[in-house]
Design a protein that fits this description.
heterotetramer, A: alpha/beta, 3-stranded antiparallel beta sheet, 12 helices, 12 strands, globular, C: alpha/beta, 20 helices, 35% helix, binds thiamine diphosphate, binds iron/sulfur cluster, binds magnesium ion
Amino acid sequence: MNDMTPVALTPKDWETDQEVRWCPGCGDYAILKAVQRTLPDIGATPENTVFVSGIGCSSRFPYYVESYGFHTIHGRAPAVATGVKLANPDLDVWIVTGDGDGLSIGGNHTMHILRRNLDCQILLFNNEIYGLTKGQYSPTSREGTKSPSTPFGSVDHPAKPAAFALGSGARFVGRGFDVSKNLPDVLKAAHAHKGAAFVEIFQNCIVYNKDVFADFTEKKNADEGQLWLEQGKPMLFAKGAKGIALDIEKLTLKVVMVENGDWQAAGVIVHDVTNRSVAHMLVEMPFGAFPMALGVLYDDPVPTFESAVVQQNALAAKGKTPDLQKLVSQGQTWTVKAGAEG
Amino acid sequence: MNDMTPVALTPKDWETDQEVRWCPGCGDYAILKAVQRTLPDIGATPENTVFVSGIGCSSRFPYYVESYGFHTIHGRAPAVATGVKLANPDLDVWIVTGDGDGLSIGGNHTMHILRRNLDCQILLFNNEIYGLTKGQYSPTSREGTKSPSTPFGSVDHPAKPAAFALGSGARFVGRGFDVSKNLPDVLKAAHAHKGAAFVEIFQNCIVYNKDVFADFTEKKNADEGQLWLEQGKPMLFAKGAKGIALDIEKLTLKVVMVENGDWQAAGVIVHDVTNRSVAHMLVEMPFGAFPMALGVLYDDPVPTFESAVVQQNALAAKGKTPDLQKLVSQGQTWTVKAGAEG
Amino acid sequence: MATAVLDPLSSVAAGAAPEAVVVRFAGDSGDGMQLTGGQFTLSTALAGNDLATFPDFPAEIRAPQGTLFGVSAFQINFGSTDITTAGDAPDVLVAMNPAALKTNVKDLKPGGLIIADAGEFGDRNLAKAKYDANPLEDGSLAKWQLLSFDISKLTLESVKEFGLGNKEALRCKNMWTLGLALWMFDRDRDPIIDWLKTKFAKAPVLADANIAALNAGHAYGETAEIGGAGLGLRQLNIAAAPAPDGLYRTVTGAESISLGLVAGTQLASLPMFFGGYPITPASAILHHLSRLKEYDVTTFQAEDEIAAIASAIGASYAGSLGVTSSSGPGIALKGEAIGLAIMTELPLVIVNSQRGGPSTGLPTKTEQSDLYQAVYGRNGDAPMPVIAARSPADAFDCAIEAVRIAVQYMTPVMLLTDGYIANAAEPWKVPDMSSYAPFPVTFMETAQEGGFLPYGRDEKLKRPWVKPGTPGLMHRIGGIEKALNTGHIEYSPANHQAMTELRRDKVMGIADTIPEQDVELGQMGGKLAVVGWGSTFGPIYQAVRRARAKGLDVSHIHLRHIWPMPRNLGDLLRSYGKILVPEMNTGQLKTVLRDQYLVDAKPLNKVSGQPFRIAEIEAAIEEALA
Amino acid sequence: MATAVLDPLSSVAAGAAPEAVVVRFAGDSGDGMQLTGGQFTLSTALAGNDLATFPDFPAEIRAPQGTLFGVSAFQINFGSTDITTAGDAPDVLVAMNPAALKTNVKDLKPGGLIIADAGEFGDRNLAKAKYDANPLEDGSLAKWQLLSFDISKLTLESVKEFGLGNKEALRCKNMWTLGLALWMFDRDRDPIIDWLKTKFAKAPVLADANIAALNAGHAYGETAEIGGAGLGLRQLNIAAAPAPDGLYRTVTGAESISLGLVAGTQLASLPMFFGGYPITPASAILHHLSRLKEYDVTTFQAEDEIAAIASAIGASYAGSLGVTSSSGPGIALKGEAIGLAIMTELPLVIVNSQRGGPSTGLPTKTEQSDLYQAVYGRNGDAPMPVIAARSPADAFDCAIEAVRIAVQYMTPVMLLTDGYIANAAEPWKVPDMSSYAPFPVTFMETAQEGGFLPYGRDEKLKRPWVKPGTPGLMHRIGGIEKALNTGHIEYSPANHQAMTELRRDKVMGIADTIPEQDVELGQMGGKLAVVGWGSTFGPIYQAVRRARAKGLDVSHIHLRHIWPMPRNLGDLLRSYGKILVPEMNTGQLKTVLRDQYLVDAKPLNKVSGQPFRIAEIEAAIEEALA
Ligand SMILES: Cc1ncc(C[n+]2csc(CCOP(=O)(O)OP(=O)(O)O)c2C)c(N)n1
Ligand SMILES: Cc1ncc(C[n+]2csc(CCOP(=O)(O)OP(=O)(O)O)c2C)c(N)n1
Ligand code: SF4
Ligand code: SF4
Ligand SMILES: [Mg+2]
Ligand SMILES: [Mg+2]
């Protein structure tokens, strides 16, 4: 029995004896590493950590993390996680899902766990494709995606995971991508947030949807393509040469040029993670005309579901002592005594 | 065979021979009347109109409209409707659902029909309760709702149907309430919108959730409680004494007083149904501090799902003539001729 | 002269002792017939009669007043002998309006007594009930005894003094009627008066008005006012039924299952997690449990049935006993997740309150047509134990048994009940909880020697239950085939063969810890065995009893364990010349029996949404032995 | 000298004619073994041999290179006689790396031939395959014939001139190997060269490189370079199998089901709406159909399986034929909606490509364990016809039959296939479509005289199919019990009884329009009947054939119609002394047979995710007759 104490832990301690079964070069490897790097830093302990997933390449994740883990069924991880957390609120629950698992078959459970605000981290690996089933398009695939099930190109409008999360009532929305060095920081912020923390992680499926995010993930595109948001800091990108401001007429966001660092003059917005209106605008910024908003887009905690349940259970039970005999004897009763009947 | 022509139709023509089985005083009656008043005005024909519903008191709706109707299973109406519309895009498809049917068990289908933008009208009767199953709280019930399943009060944060719809990608979001005289206008706008039109209709369940909307639906509360939005018109309420403006610092909405009709001075926003950012703010306005936003909150059409499917099918089939014999003979073939084998 | 006397029992075969009476209260959904019936049931129980009830209400919440489909009825069968069914045909029908009369009178025994509220037989109501003429006046009820007078008016008078609105005042009609019924059977009003006082504690005037109506109805019977036509109504006293000493209460199936689940988890010293989603007639269990938080019960109303069972599975994984409950359509949705519980070998109790199917079917009607789904309704070779409750009282022990099997074998268990059991009330001798042997669960906290094996086995073939939070025993589980012992992902042919057999053997092994099948009436061997399960117990039991009284060689066998079946069942069944299987479905248990024992089990099927009548089964017995 | 000659058939019993050979190609998922196998299959078919194949690949998309779980294999059995299985043990094993050798060699017949790429047997790969020593050198393969040389190196040389990167160049290994295999069996390379040219049309250099590798492998065999050790390899020519004249092609089950569904809807002159959600091994049907839009096919990838079937039901309501397809877990999710299709009596075809269960189980392995779910797996009394395909070619006719039943009886129909049929390829005599009788659907456009009855009946008990858009026939349907004829909501006992019986009788009546059950091998009556269904056809047929050749009294009966069963099946089964039912499950068809006919059907079960071996069934036959 190896009972480990946080101090002693290193990323290595979070690796299992299982062979990792993703395709060579899959973005999932980088995410796994990022998580294994994050866990020691936040002082997590393997015995109190539970990874719950659905089905998909991404959902294989729990097998590779040395903690408790449950690889459930397609789309249902949030519901299973809700039971885990309500049964034992002390557990640190992480949900790993994919764009198909969490937004196609599982969209409803994703909505409700966010609405209820169960304290957990939800990592949605968005590779804009169904990896495990060999490459069919997913709800996040771009219009025109050619796939085995859409040989002439997909025709439906893609879902926006972060926008969906906000619309569902999410109180934390973060974004990162597989090989980003900042991913651990986003994960830490998600973990620090008490409540359901939704993190969209862009992930490269090199076999079925290679490099769809290269426009902003690749080094050469980083400056123009990535807007890293920081609380209290102006929304600057392109090495500070550009920023995001509000178009007062249209009441929408716009990109502005920043002359020699004077972002105030350019009207660049200072990021306030608690501003929900701005969060809505950020998650809907069309990439291309705008950079990709990354980091912590929104973070404004409210009471969590499991704490409210625990509190109510305690309150309701207060002063009552469980007594089975009393319980079964409730209601209007009568007694039959020998000789009573004629 | 009574083939009727639009001109001839009256609300009466849209009534069926079935006894209406809602509780006396249920808000559903008023909505039924509003729909039956609307259908003739939009020139609908019974044979080309299909009402599809799930399960719930609200979902009994199709039995009472003299058109084609399908009372399906709990939560699945949007999926059934998608099949109906794709099989025959000429049909005018109306979906009737409830806060439980459309947002609890059926939330995922609601999301996907909105995302895909199937041309149809989605009427969600929100009574903030499960009526048919005798009064359990629903995803839209307010915190603390005491119900048979939450005797000590519900603890989860309620879902916001309109916010959920926008987050799911809706291109039309309207709002009304059962006894409102404006409801037919909202329904007409929804029908005029080509694409998925989401309409939240506040409905009074007099048996299990009586008068929860009285704060804005009742005559005496109408002025202060109702903000009726009109394209190109300033967002005024309280007989024009108050309006909605943008708080530039906080980047959120605020209520402003309008001095002798000079709303420009007060900075009242002019409603632009195509402004998505503002739509997000409107659906999230907390009632109480703000009035209830009603009417057409957002209306900005994009190409519909079924039209894209029809178009692609046609394109893909173009120039190819169906030939079963050719089809089965495809691939690498060979011929066996008598005496060929040794 | 006798014929001039209205006699609730004139319908009972002449000379037969008034062993039992069947009374049906029928009225508008708004008339409060279920309340009336419930309170009459209570007073009956307090009078020491044995009894059984059958509430039968419409699918609509509150159908429009006066309509045929809006009629709500409550039937009670009570007597001085052991009662196990709500009775076949009523002796007395209380009809509060024309629709109630129209839909119920055809069931009334010839010569039976009709008590009708003449005040409600106006033209509008007659039209709504599709009567051309007033049946109270056109002689069409001649084959029954008719007692009709203006209950509405009498009620209004009785509550005048309290100055209620007309609508409110009329709401007291049911109490007036109850008062009359109490007088007819010589019952004590006090307990009902107490109940009214607590019910209307917040509105004393309503309490007083209802009490006044109750007393007025009672007085009306007493002061032979009845029938200006000079008719009298014979008052009846049904002797108390012989019953073992002890404390009694009435209980519905929904209550007893909830209590049994609590008792079971307490005996297993586990917290209970209940994940549910409302559906008729299963919701009542969610409602009951949500009030029992002091018993370490957490209830969770999920977004749908899949989330309900998934959350329960998650809770079981985390160390609570996960329980979920639904009925037909909802259980269908749980199929995939049940497979996950089978593969991950987690304890779970799934309660199915069966209703009329297929599809949405008849939500408020009873049926037994989900047995196939329970035993066979999953993808893959997915064995799961199934047990069925026979009555509201029996459901308590069944729930405890379901919990025991779930935790002692680490398996999901399906507990079958139905709409009839869920809603019906019967007297219940309060069990002595100290007589139940606890079966506390021990979680694994240190690895087996030789190293931790999450899929290692004990002598019952059960794998260890390890709670997340336990240091050193971290492990991963999931729905993909597991390797023997280690529980790792494993696709090899030999392993899948072995695991499939292991899952089967584990479940079949449960037969080692369940009692052998006994015979309810009669003995092993003979001409005919009537084999039943679930809520058909009452009618089968009575039918066999009557047939045996006539000297017929027939025995009654009633199964609690549907899967696996008791070890001795095959030999037992083969000891009879014929086997008759009455079911409220098209023959589902029959399939299992024929498959398992190759016996020529003959089905007797009723799929009308109504329980069997004793006479229907009696006739089938006589036919089988003819 | 003979022993010095490597003989792919030395493993065939001495003296036995080289009737058939079994070759297995095994390598890393990245090595393109499925492609190699596919092309070898084609050339085999072109050579006129009969054949059957068995692709067996890992659940992982691309498991890490060299690992045991990453091995992908393709087996082909071909010969001059009628071939119906992929063969038991291989005669020849091509192993592209140590992992492939390790996981496959144990299946090789004693004396069988191993061809191994020595170039891949370096220390890293040996370690990954958990070999301590190099099996090519340590003599551990002594009981087989070993031919090992550096295919990698030879391939690199053969494509040098094209200046590919090392990684790309090595990708040509499989073509080199294929070239050698083609030479071994004296095959024509042209069709494969054509195929390579079209496949790499966009990258001619890759086409040339692959062709060069193919030729080099072929040349290597020819120019007896093989075995510096002076060994030679005997070239073999397997005679063409006798086959009726006509046009032939190879087809997989997924292809033929797609084609059959198209043919069926065309014969019914209906548009097809296919609502699906990806799942292994069912996805291929969605993929195939999505390319056939000119046949009035609309494919819709829904958000989940429930939406998939719900959309198909909606499409059927609107006048298309709704089709949905999935496998185990997905079918489980469709249960509730299937009930809706049963209650609303809409035509629907549900294809279940079965895989190993329960739960997620073994997605890429084959099994027959969803028969219970198909026949019994719903809430309520919910009868639904079920038919099962026996082979890739048979699946075509089964799909047409499923469509016919669905539209002629207004009912959902489940078509069972499995992972083996879905992926396996076999030669298929292209059917003459003009020989199929059309069964065009007529929608109701004017009311029956006496007024429109949406739930009126024809002689088959079928209700009318009315398309929304039809003037004057507006009506409402749903999942609540329907009134006879009118189809209105109806809760009355008598009506539910009648409708339940009607639904049952309608489905049982299908037996009137299906052929009586025939006997594949043998005749009615006798000592033993082996009764099978689905993809066990091949091994059962061969086993019975061999047993009969040995003079044993055994017949083979193979069911297409699982529910309802052919009218004559009971008498047929009762005409045999014993009945043996081999199934790739724990005994599911067995249950139906015992229930329906009370015959002592004995199960023979295999649940390893692998098809039966002929020998396994042969042994069971001999035991049964011993
Ligand atoms: C009920 C059910 N339906 C379908 C499947 C097949 N399936 C497995 S994973 C998957 C989608 C995976 O996509 P995603 O969630 O994006 O994960 P990825 O593989 O891309 O990481 C599907 C359709 C299944 N296993 N279970
Ligand atoms: C699969 C399934 N689960 C549960 C139910 C029970 N049920 C019927 S309606 C309903 C909720 C109704 O609420 P809502 O959609 O708000 O409709 P309302 O009655 O309030 O109009 C539920 C839980 C069902 N019929 N089917
Ligand atoms: S298929 Fe794509 S997502 Fe899946 S493991 Fe391979 S690369 Fe990663
Ligand atoms: S229960 Fe509520 S929603 Fe349902 S019919 Fe009655 S009043 Fe209307
Ligand atoms: Mg994905
Ligand atoms: Mg509601």
